[in-house]
Design a protein that fits this description.
Blueprint lengths: L2 E5 L2 H13 L5 E5 L5 E3 L2 E3 L1 H10 L17 H8 L10 H15 L4 H11 L5 E4 L6 E6 L2 E4 H7 L8 E5 L10 H7 L2 E4 L4 H9 L2 H8 L5 E4 L2 E2 L2 E2 L4 H9 L4 H7 L6 E5 L12 E5 L6 H12 L1 H4 L1
Helix pairs in contact: 1-2, 1-12, 4-5, 7-9
The structure holds ligand FO1.
Ligand FO1 binds next to helix 2 and helix 6.
């Protein structure tokens, strides 16, 4: 089956592992958020692309949720001892990937081309694409000032309540090569259980991706990132509450108004599915191991049968 999955980092990467377990990975295309990308220590870092690559390659640190398993931090300790920038923690193993990517980008390669090379080098069968090759950066306006994504999320521990999310560069950003083609040929489009505002929002801010979803001829199914009205991890719950007015399945569906045909919600939210507006699919959504990741992916993939 040809499936496109719009994905952010941690939750999206876990979900993608379930998807490639459930269907032939060669038919799976991940379209990944780049709004979190940053330059740190002179290196180009794409955290969500990396979370997806590491998860699909079985290299991810499952507990931390980002970066690589069996990581060591010697380079960062040296950086810190020498008074360098250490607020954004790059592990020794992780650093290797950023060095390769940075060199390629400086040599004139596009982000999608180098990502394609990394995907092949890691032996992955799925296609992993950045939403765009152009610069698209997420900014958060808060009562305490405006911050780029990683300064708000990591340096300030996403404590500042968010009044507005902006995507710098989105107006002129074109989809990366392959994104529209994948959407055009997809039999099913999935939106991973990622934060609708800061993980999926930047992807949908690329106008031609949004309009491709609006004009879809195949089902699009989103998976809610909330369980019992709360995010498993991260600021999705607080953001839904402040920006959308609540944390029910209907509030999640509202983030994707006109773009989805079904919403996968957790059993803990089943009592609130009445006003959701799209077809609800109720299942267990906590991805604690391979079996639960695959079961969640299968529940979303089943939407094809109802189309
Ligand atoms: N998240 C943190 O909370 N602290 C970090 O120091 C940090 C470093 C980091 C390095 C590489 C990478 O790929 C991801 C990293 N993350 C870190 C995760 C990242 O900030 C977020 O999880 C994503 O951007 C949100 O999807």
């Amino acid at each position: 089956m040809k499936v496109v999955v719009l994905s952010g980092g941690v939750g999206g990467a876990r979900f993608l592992r379930g998807v490639v377990d459930a269907v032939d990975p060669a038919g799976v295309t991940a379209v990944v958020n780049v709004g979190d990308d940053l330059e740190v220590l002179g290196l180009s870092v794409s955290p969500d692309l990396d979370s997806v690559l590491y998860a699909l390659a079985g290299l991810a640190d499952e507990e931390r949720g980002w970066g690589r398993a069996d990581e060591t931090w010697n380079a960062l300790a040296t950086v810190e001892a020498l008074g360098g920038e250490a607020w954004f923690r790059l592990g020794d193993r992780d650093l290797g990937l950023h060095v390769v990517r940075t060199q390629a980008l400086r040599g004139g390669e596009s982000l999608s081309t180098v990502t394609n090379r990394l995907t092949a080098a890691l032996g992955l069968e799925a296609t992993v694409l950045p939403a765009t090759d152009e610069s698209l950066r997420t900014w958060l306006d808060t009562p305490n000032g405006s911050f780029d994504f990683q300064h708000w999320f990591v340096a300030r521990a996403h404590r500042d309540p968010v009044d507005r999310v902006r995507f710098e560069g989105a107006a002129s950003a074109r989809p990366a090569p392959g994104v529209l083609e994948a959407l055009h040929h997809a039999e099913l489009i999935l939106i991973a259980p990622s934060n609708p505002f800061v993980s999926i929002g930047p992807i949908l801010a690329v106008e031609r991706i949004r309009s491709a979803l609006e004009r879809r001829r195949v089902p699009c199914v989103a998976v809610s990132p909330l369980i019992g009205g709360e995010a498993v991890k991260g600021p999705a719950g607080a953001m839904l509450h402040r920006l959308e007015g609540g944390t029910t399945p209907a509030h999640v569906a509202q983030c994707y108004a006109g773009l989805i045909d079904a919403l996968v919600v957790d059993e803990a939210d089943a009592h609130q599915i009445d006003a959701v507006g799209v077809r609800p699919i109720v299942t267990k959504t906590l991805m604690r191991d391979a079996a639960s990741r695959r079961a969640l992916a299968e529940a979303a993939l089943d939407a094809v049968a109802f189309a």
